[in-house]
Input
Amino acid sequence: MRVGVLGNSDYPALGEVIANFLREAPRLGMEVFLEQQLLPLAPGASALAGPEGLDAVVSLGGDGTMLRAARFLDGADVPVLGVNFGRLGYLASCSPKEFPRFLPRLAKGTYTSDVRMALEATTGITGTEHGTRLRAVNDVVMHKGGFARVLRIRLTVNNEEIGVLAADGIVISTPTGSTAYSMSAGGPIVEPGVHSLIVTPIAAHTLAMRPLVLRPESVITLQPEDVHGEVLVTVDGQVGASLVGGHALIVRRAERPVRIVRFHGTTFIGRLRRKLGWGGLADRDD
Output
């Protein structure tokens, strides 16, 4: 079994977890490959080149690392096991303390795959799709750059114009991303199994503009108007591109989803209660 490992080296305990993983891997029939930035933590370990030939990916960090691991796979049909070193860890499969116990189950394949839809975003000249292509697991956000002005965004769904939105920006999210930026902007929480695209304005300047939940096959086009300065497109809060006048952003469901490793006993409602503090802050922190 070939396992790729991506991680956030800012966490002090990461080196110890990687060392234990590398010691256990041969016994479990695993061949482990570390991304370049983790190699200093494990001298002599094999380097991770790409997703080709991998049977699984382990993400060591927070939700941001998990999202980066999913984008690293770029649609490859490989499950991702997230080990949460951060505070929230909404996408994670287990904690560092639980990881040694769950590792044999990963090796044996005794887990379920939580299939999550992803997004494909294309930026380029309006009316074309020959620009920069980006892949998102959580969301694609169009927002203003370093200028204190309201954005005017022409919103079109399936070639039918909805109107021109005046706001600080707009979030197009997957159900997975419905508990991230979209939720903070007032969008609904959507169960991951309900495949859909969620359109949430950021500080809209009219109360009539409300969040929309669209069919997963919808194609959304966003075109900024009266551009004065830089308009940014951010993917999963980590990478992105910029738009200029005459350019548009097209967002649709990606052809290939992301598979997240889940073990028995973890449910969507259970994670909502624990991670979002619905059971009380003390319960969440425990």
